[in-house]
Amino acid sequence: MTYTPSHDPAGDDRDGGVRGPSGGDPAGSRAGRSSGAATGWHVPEEDLRAYARGELAAPMLWSADSHLTACAACRAVLAEAADPVALDAGWERLDAALDAPRTGLLESLLVRAGVADHTARLLAATPVLRRSWLGAVVVVLALTVLATHATRDTASPTLFLVLAPLLPLAGVALSYGPALDPTYEMAVVSPTHGFRLLMIRTVAVLAVALGLNGLATLALPGYGPRALAWLLPALALTATCLALTPRLGPALAPLLVGGGWVAVLVAADAVRTGADDPLAPFTAVGQGASALVAAVGAALILLLRERFDLGGGPAAG
Q1: pLDDT at 35
Q2: pTM, whole model, 2 decimals?
Q3: Are 40 and 7 in contact (CB under 8 A)?
Q4: How far apart are CA 225 and CA 40, in angstroms?
Q5: Which helix (DSSP H) or strand (DSSP E) does residue 57 occupy?
Q6: DSSP label at 4?
Q7: pLDDT-derived band of residue 236, with 50, 70 and 90 as boundaries?
Q8: Are 210 and 167 in contact (CB under 8 A)?
């Protein structure tokens, strides 16, 4: 059976469809009476029922698709023939597909790497993993490296070492709270809110921030291992901030920690004996102290993990 209109002057439809106005068709008379004179051909009711069940095969399926877009009568017959339960389920699937946000590049890469769908969605919604934030970090690091090269008059890249630990701290701080997190309301009521969400986003943000800092460090080969003296302070600042978050909130904690870092640097600059001497946090003793602070902060985070799940963590503030 073909679906090409073949209407003769007498109104006979050789394709077995609904006859024209001069002839009756016992199988498809409803469609024929309504608009047969206008179109000359309609999809037989038997094929419409197969279409509704999803059993109509090509090329008849293609012809029916094309015809149904322009024929209200056949659509009415199809609505009567369709299973209402299956129709409702189809509309629900369509609504869900339309309401679902598009999968971004980052989320797609995470899923392909084996990350669970819901975890990938949480990571992709992290504000500081967006291109705007990452672009700003790259620009800041690039300018800092250029400034360090332009003013290389000391044995240590002080400007870079001072700034690099603040970037992971800022990234972690900006990952939570209703002001910046577009999924804040969903995160609060989801099973992954609190400590687990904190750890997922912290690890992701630290991985990105420390990776960018590491790439910037490679642009300072003349300083050797001294250019890596930012790493332990960065971990110490981040761990301290997270440990203070349940009590102070996601806004006040990073501000106090960042301010404390600046105060330590100012005090270290005041007591150093020469301009070529590294600041205290970037000496061997200072690195040991940073490692100790990072370890204590990590231990406190584990001890206080229940407070994050009780609403005192990243969802607060």
Answers
A1: 42
A2: 0.59
A3: yes
A4: 84
A5: none
A6: S
A7: very high
A8: no
pLDDT (mean) for 143-171: 84
Integer Cα distance of 301 and 239 in angstroms: 8
Q: Which amino acid is at 258?
A: G
Structure token digits, residue 269: 């600059």
User: What band does 106 get if pLDDT is binned at 50, 70 and 90?
Assistant: low
Task: Report the 3 state secondary structure along 211-237.
Answer: HHHHHHHHCCHHHHHHHHCCHHHHHHH
Residue position matching structure tokens 């322009």: 70
In this prediction, residue 15 carries a pLDDT of 41
pLDDT at 158 over 80: yes
**DSSP readout, 161-186?**
HHHTTHHHHHHHHTTSSTTT-TTHHH
Contact predicate 10/23, CB 8 Å: yes
C-alpha torsion 91→92→98→104, nearest 10: -140
Q: How far apart are CA 201 and CA 186, in angstroms?
A: 15
Give the span between the Cα atoms of 53 and 68, in whole angstroms: 15
As a whole number of angstroms, the distance between CA 245 and CA 275 comes to 36
Q: What is the CA radius of gyration of the chain?
A: 33
Q: Which pLDDT belongs to residue 11?
A: 40
Share of the chain above pLDDT 90, in %: 20
